[in-house]
Amino acid sequence: MLVMGFIGQAIGQWLKVKDLKKFTTRFKAMTRPGEKITVQGRVVDENETCWICEAETVNEAAEVKVKDTLKLKNNYFYGCSRELTRYVKFVMLIAVLQENLFNNHAVMDEVSKIKGELAMREYVTTKQEINKNSLPYNLYQKAKKFGIWNPVDIDFSQDKEDWKKLNGEQQLELLTQFAQFIGGEEAVTQDILPMIMAVSKKGWFEEESYLTTFLFEEAKHAEFFSLFLEEIGVTEDLTHLLSPGYRKLFDETLPAVMGKLLEDQSPEAMIDAAVTYNIFAEGVLAETGYWFFHEALSRANLFPGFISGIRNVKRDEGRHIGFGTFLIQRLISENPELDLFERVQQRLQELLPIAMMLTERKEGEEVTSLGIERGKSMEFAMKQLQARLTVLSRAKGKTLEEIYNTDIALEEV
Known about the structure:
The protein contains 14 helices and four strands. By secondary structure, it is α+β, with helices and mostly antiparallel strands. The protein folds into two domains: 2-117, Thiol Ester Dehydrase, Chain A (Roll), CATH 3.10.129; 135-404, Ribonucleotide Reductase, subunit A. Strands 1-4-3-2 form a four-stranded antiparallel β-sheet, with helices on one face. Helix 1 crosses helix 2 and helix 6 runs parallel beside helix 9 (244-259). The radius of gyration is 27 Å and the shape is elongated. It starts with a helix and ends in a 9-residue tail after the last helix. The model is unreliable at 76-103 and 409-413 (pLDDT under 50).
């Protein structure tokens, strides 16, 4: 019985409790004084969500004394190749068991040796294992096809004339929107980097391939707004137009939740990041901004160059939202025991006050200078929020294969 206690204690000290999904132990035979006991282990099965492992304590005659079964989340060793993970996981586990029981230095030396081998990369390209039917890879192909537009090719000559037609109040309303968009595009260009690194650590090459285009497009969107403002003659500093709601999201909330991914690639951390970045910032707020530009400018046949560019931006962002939706659905499917959809809902509830801050109007203003009625922006934002939640809820009960081969068509991409 003491051996059983030692094994349970050792596993609890070595593994993170949240990564140990199940642990069972069974007494097989009595341990007698003087017997030399060793520990051996192996991975007996695996699936998309966990490793099934066995550990045994045996004597010199290979008589099993205690047999343990462990179920571990397969993201416990981030960034390890599949083959090395299978071996290293149990070598390191056994080492701790041995150290606690017998201080077996030979096993610990083997652990050090295997740790060094982790520096060797595994290439899905050379193994011809790229999943070319997956949604992330399809998004990558679409980005190469549709994301090659160039802001410098847009003719803003009529936009410059339209700008002169607006009165001071109308110009200020537009400049406030432009400032928050251009600042937001710069912010998300910086903040997507930890997501790329997190996906890379997990070895998800298809997702990583798509995210490289994601970064390129966010930088191009910032360039688009900058070039547009320059062409219509706006050269002053617009920093003073960044609202408290903007500051809350892009200076505090977003960089914090994305930066956390540099150290924490857990399902919870990735859910928080994807919900904040893809679903809220892009899928709710940016989409509400596009609606504003359509209502205020496109319907009045103003700023044709800007509107043509915004169509391209919106198409790019549609792919971004599709990726975020896929990622969240994948995480929900892979981790049914965590109830991550509940976390999605909770996160969006926490972010909702920011949406209210960003869509609020002046006291007593029923219609803005550009004809936007009070409450319409928030109404559209809530509609987008509910649409995103509806799509995400469909992940519950689906297999990873079903999620991975989904064709998400949230936007025209």
